[in-house]
């Protein structure tokens, strides 16, 4: 079996050549109980915006799109529609007043394909439209010129304050940014400027402008609470794998190789609903979803050098990769084989906005997010990777926390098949 | 009258007619745990009677009618006697409730067989213009199916009765195929189908033997765990099974068949009590990685490991206790804490020195012989003694106090060994525990779900002990001792013989078992050769008269209850 995997690795010379060190391979079918002691691997069960444990901030919380819309109504309308039970009615009114559009492209959505949808002849049934086809669909169905985007796992074309936040600045009116002093993250630029936070453990100069931008949004704060996040499996469908190789001492090792990969397999739940530990995952063969760097382990804490990573983000309604530049991993390797820590790096604005665009404003949680507010704040607070042509920043410092359990990675099996 | 029947009522009566026409029943006396159910024409000649097991029933339906025909329903549970379900098959009854279940299953099968989408291939004829009632067609059907279903030719009277029943039922139901289904249901619930009934044949070298049809069944159920196929039935018809040299050729053919692995699997599933794993449940909070899927795959893992070693590679049975090559899939990988490259079944090789080696370290054994939330050296040791060494361990007295053993959070008695030691301070308990616990404690580095561990409540686990006056440390070492010890071999040989014969070991079996033991050693302990030796033994085909069964005219009444 080792030979098979070796051949598989050789079948991808270009991919491997791009990596500083050959990616980790499965221990092999002759591996001992517990696997190769020089390697550790993990599957991440949740990747989330880590919320700082700080009281007394974000009072009041940032207004969502629906709240901003409600505030824009007359006193009589507000009185009639402010009750929680009127939420759906209020959403409908917002859509009507602001000209939101939402059109299902195929069966499988609630309501199935929109009966009135006019689709281009070259769009095969069930296929995901190309960008050109999206534009054609928007034209054929009288969307505002140049507007509309795919949403809800590419099953819907929508036009609203998330797909086109620039068209609805009024919904950012009640938005606010995070003004606390504490945030998760790392000092990414080795500077301790005024914009920097203090980490929960006292680390100074923490760069996490993304949290500055979105840290008062209720939906992000709730899902970002580490206690909540630990019990949540939110990366199950297309999880991320971390593999560490070249381990001589699991507690202290000055030189290890760390590879972040996308998994081709979903997470299997155990009997109590958590992620099943020590399962085997095939690595996704897409080289874009793989990155390798060096790292070190000090007292059981892994820290890596900066590297660019692309993380699958396919959950619920979203399919929008998270692209982080200059990212580092800092994580605790736990005695039970698990891992807890974060990716700390510059989240590209394009990839973040892509996830925002796919949200649309529908849904109990989503209407609590003001996409225009988020977009404006991020545009203002972005602090990484300035585009020399435009002079604008293209990424924003961020902290993505994660939890993971021990796993085995079958790297190259896809190529072998 | 005909017009007043509901379909269901009409069918029930039709089935009753079928049963009454074909299967007058004799039952064993009330003081015997068995039913000896045979056609009246053969009742006085009845020998050992064995109920076919659920897997055998399912195999029979698939073989006769094809995999498209689904067997839906619950079967009466099999009974383990003297450690084997195969022995229990000659000691089980069919309750009235069980007969209802068989009848429900049979009716469902029969309806599928005559359904329009299967009719052409499985019935193959329709009533002709010259024979609108379908007498000839029904006769053709039962000529073909009767032999396969009853594993012997139909007697002319039986054939005539089935045809008559078909026509009578068809008239009552207004449909030829419905009548055929009713007669088929009767055949499927007849004792000749549900039981294997040996009949006397011509003597061989002074031995009283079963007849050729019974020989075909003995061979087929033993080697394939299935009823005889057309090849075997043809051989029986030609009398080939009565000639040792022809029998040897057939046995060689059967062993070379892919179906032989099914037979080996059936034996080890019974021998190792692997069917019990269906009922296995674990405390999810303590063993979250364990699930019903794990349990099912653990059984499959053991069976695949066995057939790989003993059938595919024609290996030494003793290596089962030490083999580091084990079937594996991704469901089981997490509990073994090993990577699994393939998405389906594959083989994993544990390296030398790994704590996993041999049967004792497989989840099917470790998890099954544990409690839902903790290990049990006593249950594990008892299983080793009883299953693999053919010893009998007495049941614990009713008033035994398990409080110390069950107190898993005892702050001073942190390990199971320590808690068991405290329990052994009671002399009455110690007498049995000293037989079971030393071997069970060797497996303590595997928790109640079969996962490896080195400590219990932070304390290092001691897995030392002794077997056959030899010191060992750990499961792998115990396996090596088993590999060199004659007792597991003796146990396997006599268990295989009891499995083949479907009864307890008798005093008159001693010479044949001794010879099989010697031959087994002579062939390098190859399981294939042991099975072949049994299949070629004249004693395997000897006719063994049973006690004369008491006749009971109860079948029609039971059938009435079942059918209606």
TrEMBL record, chain A:
Keywords: Signal. Residues 109-129 are annotated as: Disordered. This is Uncharacterized protein. Residues 1-25 form the signal peptide. It comes from the Bacteria.
Automatic annotation (TrEMBL), chain B:
Residues 356-456 form the DUF1588 domain. It holds the Pfam family PSD2. Keywords: Signal. It comes from the Bacteria. Residues 50-114 form the DUF1587 domain. Residues 212-338 form the DUF1592 domain. Residues 470-540 form the DUF1585 domain. Residues 1-28 form the signal peptide. Residues 137-197 form the DUF1595 domain. This is DUF1592 domain-containing protein. It comes from Edaphosphingomonas laterariae.
